[in-house]
């Protein structure tokens, strides 16, 4: 196995994590958020253990200015970076917005590549050097810490970058950022850039170096790791890797690469791993920016397995097919996905999570029907699997079964829903409720039906085919007694699928906590009254 060439006796290098989700990340098309929501994300970033937060671009809008100001006033355990072009008005806005921060820095940038100089800012190299000197000197009268970014460094030529960096250090810059702005570089080039500039630029030994890598060629994380190898001690990231075009270096991927390969990297961060998943979900929901299924670390499939061989190995020892512990990152344990490649071991394991025990004969019946369902839908939902188990055992394994649902929707009225739920004792009860949307109305009905109904936390809807007759998959996550449970259902009616998935998640929570009998006793008592 190839590893970085490091001295095993060297002490761990502490890598600062600079988060620009609220600035560069927000520049993703469609990812803009209300400034009032920025503070919510910033609080979570601080909880995550981020070293530096870049909350926005102060001069860009009054809303951004106000958000930066509020974040600067509230968060005292994290450094705040005021982002500005090498323009006096930008600097003044950034300084004013961050003036109440306990710790702050100015982050100044100017282009350095010939293509940017010739076609965008229309300045000569000499003019760029002088502007950088003047603006860093101007900013220095307000703050001690100044980070200087030579934008598009990786397409600028090492000699000029070295000259520009030297001028920036001479003017008072304390942190030098060498961005791969266009995601153009490959790891060997990034490492060489950092090594050369650190070696050749006068004063480089007095400053820290940072990397800001974009993901246009899918190498942002690899390039950031190469920058660390080249001497960088700060990496600039975004949650879920959001950002301009193909995005930035992904916070969760970088942090877990360093953590998982700590022996090779000889580096560490101060990130609180248990907050990674919650941070990812918050950013995705708030910015309405979905996470790809196969996204490393936080994607839906990152710790899920359909292959029967993999599933069997995982159930025997997790380390057979996983190199990280998802639960350590706050990711709910849900590693088995039931599909046509799944084996009996995985099916029996999933049924046991619902408290359903089947003998070998019943298991064979379930498996035969399971294969037919898997061929039809590819994935077999929890609701479908439990139905198959019920048929094989001639029982109702679940405490609750949704037997009927009706929803009335319209443009000028509240949505009205009614549901009928069958309890384990055979009794059926009906409930009705209203909501602003049909899913909300249905969930309110079910919460009346199930006294132990858990907090509805998240809903994912996915199309499993195309056309008007497409099947939709609903995945519902609930929070019950401090633990998360996930239920799934597949149906052409996505409202019905959502309701069934919610009931499945509630059933799993009830069975896992052993509260099913208590719930039945309460309902029998209520009906007697």
TrEMBL record:
<dbReference type="Pfam" id="PF22617">
    <property type="entry name" value="HCS_D2"/>
</dbReference>
<dbReference type="InterPro" id="IPR036230">
    <property type="entry name" value="LeuA_allosteric_dom_sf"/>
</dbReference>
<keyword id="KW-0808">Transferase</keyword>
<keyword id="KW-0464">Manganese</keyword>
<dbReference type="InterPro" id="IPR013709">
    <property type="entry name" value="2-isopropylmalate_synth_dimer"/>
</dbReference>
<dbReference type="GO" id="GO:0003852">
    <property type="term" value="F:2-isopropylmalate synthase activity"/>
</dbReference>
<comment type="similarity">
    <text>Belongs to the alpha-IPM synthase/homocitrate synthase family. LeuA type 1 subfamily.</text>
</comment>
<dbReference type="Pfam" id="PF00682">
    <property type="entry name" value="HMGL-like"/>
</dbReference>
<dbReference type="GO" id="GO:0009098">
    <property type="term" value="P:L-leucine biosynthetic process"/>
</dbReference>
<keyword id="KW-0100">Branched-chain amino acid biosynthesis</keyword>
<dbReference type="InterPro" id="IPR000891">
    <property type="entry name" value="PYR_CT"/>
</dbReference>
<dbReference type="GO" id="GO:0046872">
    <property type="term" value="F:metal ion binding"/>
</dbReference>
<dbReference type="Pfam" id="PF08502">
    <property type="entry name" value="LeuA_dimer"/>
</dbReference>
<protein>
    <recommendedName>
        <fullName>2-isopropylmalate synthase</fullName>
        <ecNumber>2.3.3.13</ecNumber>
    </recommendedName>
</protein>
<dbReference type="InterPro" id="IPR013785">
    <property type="entry name" value="Aldolase_TIM"/>
</dbReference>
<keyword id="KW-0479">Metal-binding</keyword>
<feature type="domain" description="Pyruvate carboxyltransferase">
    <location>
        <begin position="15"/>
        <end position="277"/>
    </location>
</feature>
<dbReference type="InterPro" id="IPR054691">
    <property type="entry name" value="LeuA/HCS_post-cat"/>
</dbReference>
<dbReference type="InterPro" id="IPR005671">
    <property type="entry name" value="LeuA_bact_synth"/>
</dbReference>
<comment type="pathway">
    <text>Amino-acid biosynthesis; L-leucine biosynthesis; L-leucine from 3-methyl-2-oxobutanoate: step 1/4.</text>
</comment>
<dbReference type="InterPro" id="IPR002034">
    <property type="entry name" value="AIPM/Hcit_synth_CS"/>
</dbReference>
<keyword id="KW-0028">Amino-acid biosynthesis</keyword>
<keyword id="KW-0432">Leucine biosynthesis</keyword>
<dbReference type="InterPro" id="IPR050073">
    <property type="entry name" value="2-IPM_HCS-like"/>
</dbReference>
């Amino acid at each position: 196995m190839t590893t970085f060439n490091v001295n095993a006796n060297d002490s761990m290098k502490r890598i600062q994590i600079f988060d620009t989700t609220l600035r560069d990340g927000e520049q993703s098309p469609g990812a803009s958020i209300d400034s009032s929501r920025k503070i919510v994300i910033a609080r979570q970033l601080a909880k995550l253990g981020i070293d530096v937060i870049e909350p926005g671009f102060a001069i860009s809008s009054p809303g951004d200015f106000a958000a930066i100001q509020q974040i600067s006033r509230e968060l005292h355990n994290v450094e705040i970076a005021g982002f500005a072009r090498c323009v006096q008005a930008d600097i003044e806005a950034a300084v004013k917005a961050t003036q109440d921060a306990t710790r702050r820095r100015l982050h100044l940038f100017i282009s350095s590549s010939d293509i940017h100089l010739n076609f965008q800012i229309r300045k000569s190299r000499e003019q760029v050097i002088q502007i950088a000197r003047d603006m860093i000197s101007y900013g220095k009268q307000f703050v001690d810490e100044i980070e200087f970014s030579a934008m598009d460094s990786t397409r600028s030529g090492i000699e000029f970058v070295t000259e520009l960096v030297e001028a920036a250090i001479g003017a008072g810059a304390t942190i030098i950022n060498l961005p791969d702005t266009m995601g153009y570089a490959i790891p060997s080039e990034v490492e060489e850039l950092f090594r050369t500039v650190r070696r050749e630029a006068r004063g480089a030994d007095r400053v820290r170096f940072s990397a800001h890598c974009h993901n246009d060629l899918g190498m942002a994380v690899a390039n950031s790791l190469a920058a660390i190898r080249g001497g960088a001690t700060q990496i600039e990231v975004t949650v879920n890797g959001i950002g301009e075009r193909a995005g930035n270096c992904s916070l969760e991927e970088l942090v877990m690469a360093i953590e998982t390969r700590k022996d090779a990297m000889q580096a560490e961060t101060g990130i609180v791993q248990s907050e990674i998943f919650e941070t990812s979900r918050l950013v995705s929901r708030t910015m309405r920016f979905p996470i790809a299924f196969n996204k490393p670390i936080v994607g839906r499939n990152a710790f899920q397995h359909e292959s029967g061989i993999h599933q069997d190995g995982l159930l025997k020892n997790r380390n057979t097919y996983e190199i990280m512990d998802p639960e350590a990152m706050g990711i709910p344990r849900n590693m088995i996905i039931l599909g046509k490649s799944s084996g009996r071991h995985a099916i029996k394991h999933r049924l046991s999570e619902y408290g359903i025990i089947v003998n070998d004969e019943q298991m064979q019946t379930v498996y035969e029907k399971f294969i037919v369902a898997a061929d039809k839908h590819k994935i077999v939902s929890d609701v479908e699997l439990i139905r198959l188990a019920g048929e094989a055992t001639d029982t109702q394994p679940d405490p609750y079964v949704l037997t009927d649902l009706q929803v009335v929707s319209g443009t000028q009225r509240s949505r009205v829903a009614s549901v009928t739920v069958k309890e384990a004792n055979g009794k059926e009860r009906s409930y009705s409720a209203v909501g602003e949307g049909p899913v909300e109305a249905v969930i309110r009905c079910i919460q009346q039906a199930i006294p132990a109904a858990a907090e509805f936390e998240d809903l994912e809807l996915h199309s499993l085919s195309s056309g008007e007759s497409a099947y939709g998959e609903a995945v519902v996550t609930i929070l019950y007694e401090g633990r998360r449970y996930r239920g799934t259902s597949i149906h052409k009616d996505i409202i019905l699928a959502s309701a069934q998935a919610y009931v499945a998640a509630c059933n799993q929570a009830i069975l896992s906590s052993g509260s099913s009998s208590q719930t039945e006793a309460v309902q029998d008592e209520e009906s007697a009254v």
